[in-house]
Amino acid sequence: MSSDFFFASKLLWLVTAPDTVWLELLVLAFPFRTRRWARRLTGLLLVLAILAVAGKPAQYLAQPLENRFPHPGWPACVHGILMLGGGEGPLITASRGVPEITEGAPRLIAAIELLRRYPEAQLIFAGGSGDMLQPEPTEAGTIKAALEQLGIDLGRVRFEDKSRNTWENEVNAMAIAAPEPEQRWVLITSAMHTPRAVGIARRLGWSFLPWPVDYTTLPDGPMRSEGHFAKYLWDFSNVTHEWLGLLAYWLTGRSAELFPAPEPEPSAILCPGTAGAPANSRGARLIEG
User: Which of 179, 193, 153 is nearest to 289 (CA)?
Assistant: First the structure.
């Protein structure tokens, strides 16, 4: 069932991504460029190209996703950290022998800072390969190499390298973590991806403190236009993928809600050394690493 969902979602997105559809329509119209409908279609595609740059639709679509879960303050304690894969370059890492991390860098920085501040916490990195044809190498291998270079104690880190999408990330990580209700776990992923990741966690019954990173928008307005049409079309495809992912996960029962919203932290979280006192206040003492 999980494999069927994985392959179906990959194949469907392969032909329906907005940037792909734009090119498909352009190629379709070219042989009939002397026909009226083809000229009109080409004109429409050019108008859409202009709107993609001038109208910044990707930013307006991304803002509700990135604003959904505000970045939290430092909690009193953290028992565990789940970092979801994304933005690593496993093939380049394996072929060149140097960890390649692009969009995933903010996730790694956040994970290292949390490990430093909370010395009792463990880190689980979940990320295999989303490539349908090449399951190896994995995102986990890239992160492991990066953490080794940065001098992080790998005894505090566990790696999950079989998952291919967010659902499998969290299902497999939960089997490793075996979280207890009184523990506080932090979930690190990109801000745009946080609502879907939280929806999955709630469906699994795993309570998290969301820790969004890797923002692409300002909180209250569009950024100044930079880049080119291909970049804006790529950004639009990414945010469309996330909105459609929220819908698909909800319809298939993989998310508890269509658009998850913040909830109060559980009141039964216990910090080590507090003699059973609950610790759910953001104003509590910071534990330095």
Answer: 153
Residue 79's domain comprises: 72-215
The model's pTM is: 0.80
Q: What is the CATH number of the domain that holds 198?
A: 3.40.50.620
Structure tokens at 27: 């190629």
Within a domain: 59: no
Q: Find residue 210's DSSP bridge partners.
A: 187
Alpha helices, H only, 17-135: 18-29, 36-54, 57-67, 90-96, 105-117
Is residue 274 situated within a structural domain? no
Q: How confident is the model at residue 224 (pLDDT cuts 50, 70, 90)?
A: low
The packing angle between helices 139-149 and 105-117, to 10°, is 50
Alpha-carbon span 82 to 166, nearest angstrom: 12
Q: What is the pLDDT of residue 10?
A: 59
| pLDDT at residue 110 in the model | 97
Strand partners, 204: none
